[in-house]
Amino acid sequence: MYTPPASVVHIYPILSYGSSIWGQNTGLQALKIRFKDYYDLSKSSLSALFKQMVGKEIIFEKVSTQNSKNQVTIKVPDIGDKISLLSRQGNSPVTVEIENHMPDTWAAFEKVHSSFCKFVLGVSKFSSNYAVLGELGRVPIEHKITVSHILYWLRLEKEIHGSLLKNAFNECKGSNHDFYASISFTLSYLGLPNLLRNPVAVKESHLKSSISLRLKDQYLQSFRQKLGSYEILKICKGENTYECSQYLSTIKNVKLRNIFTRLRINNNKLQAYLHKEEVNCEKCGVLENTEHFLFHCKRECLVKERERFLSQIKGLLPTYINKSSDAKIDFLLNIKTKDADLVKVICHHINTIYGLRFFNKT
Ligand SMILES: [Zn+2]
Question: In angstroms, what is the span from residue 169 Cα to ligand 1's centroid?
């Protein structure tokens, strides 16, 4: 273990500057504290309070207040267990709740990413992140961050000796601190720990593509597991296709397209997807899922619209009537044709039948 002499000034933290991903100082602990009543949240009064609770002077590295006037996050040397114990025993002079606070740095990036994807598709914020990214053929944004992180490491390994960055990197590597520790963890996680041994021989372009591919492979495994509960998306996406769904570019009108997305990713008003206790169709008494709604529901207005659609499509696609339910779903909700008339007829039908069911009860 590398232990620098006390007089040495550390320069490795410059590698962590500006990055909350690998910049967390592992020697400190973040605590979230909620006060039951109003409390002065200044450093000096918190310091006095903690001196009473822990029995010694505590130096706060960082104090930040949240929106609430009674809540604060502090970074302190690792004394969390002792503080929690004391506060549970009621030794605290004021009533406080203390919990370890580990901010999930990835989640903040992914939240922005998935919110944007949901906005583009016009679906609710409660829709599944997996399904939404799947529709657009996208992978989590953390993949890009991880690739940049590792390419930066490679650059530092190849950097000429003598530069400030190289010195910081060598110091970080020697003590296996923050930045370097997270690199070795990531490469081991990706099954590429050998790269650490001879990084100079590694080609940047090769590294970039192999990491992206491994991350994507790992992600697709969990995507396929999640897809199990999305019967329509499963039919439409197929087993080996993870790319932007074709219907998104075929149907140009965003308003018309929106109902297709909602039906594919279970983000609609059908009983089966509302997470209510009652999931059956009020009219027919069976599960009201997308298949029931599109082909079997006995509501008069839906039956009439289906008949109208069938007579219209007979001329354009005579084989439609003989298709299985899965093939019909694939045909209706996964438009692959470039035939403008056919696209128009299907869009009109899907939007009309959904509108009749939810906005025009007769
Ligand atoms: Zn029904």
Answer: 65
Q: For residue 343, how far is its CA from the centre of ligand 1 (angstroms)?
A: 26
pLDDT at 239: 66
Q: What is the mean pLDDT of the chain?
A: 81
Cα 325 to ligand 1 centroid, rounded to whole Å: 16
Whether the pLDDT of residue 37 is over 80: the answer is no
Q: How confident is the model over 77-111, as pLDDT tens digits?
A: 666 666 665 665 566 666 666 665 555 566 778 88
CA of 294 to the centre of ligand 1 (A): 10
d(CA 344, ligand 1 centre) in Å: 26
**Rounded to the nearest whole angstrom, what is the distance from the C-alpha of residue 194 to the centroid of ligand 1?**
59
Output the 3-class SS for the chain: CCCCCCCCCCCHHHHCCCCCCCCCCCCEEEEEEEECCCCCCCHHHHHHHHHHHHCCCCCCCEEEECCCCCEEEEEEECCHHHHHHHHHCCCCCCCEEEEECCCCHHHHHHHHHHHHHHHHHCCCCCCCHHHHHHHHCCCCCHHHHHHHHHHHHHHHHHCCCCCHHHHHHHHHHHCCCHHHHHHHHHHHHCCCHHHHCCHHHCCHHHHHHHHHHHHHHHHHHHHHHHHCCCHHHHHHHCCCCCCCCCHHHHCCCHHHHHHHHHHHCCCCCCHHHCCCCCCECCCCCCECCHHHHHHHCCCHHHHHHHHHHHHHHHHHCHHHHHCCHHHHHHHHHCCCCCCHHHHHHHHHHHHHHHHHHHCCCC
Cα(280) to centroid(ligand 1), Å: 8
Mean pLDDT of 304-317: 91
Q: What's the CA-to-centroid distance between 301 and ligand 1, angstroms?
A: 11
Kindly report, residue by residue over 201-238, the tens digit of the pLDDT. Answer: 888 888 999 999 999 998 998 888 888 778 888 888 87
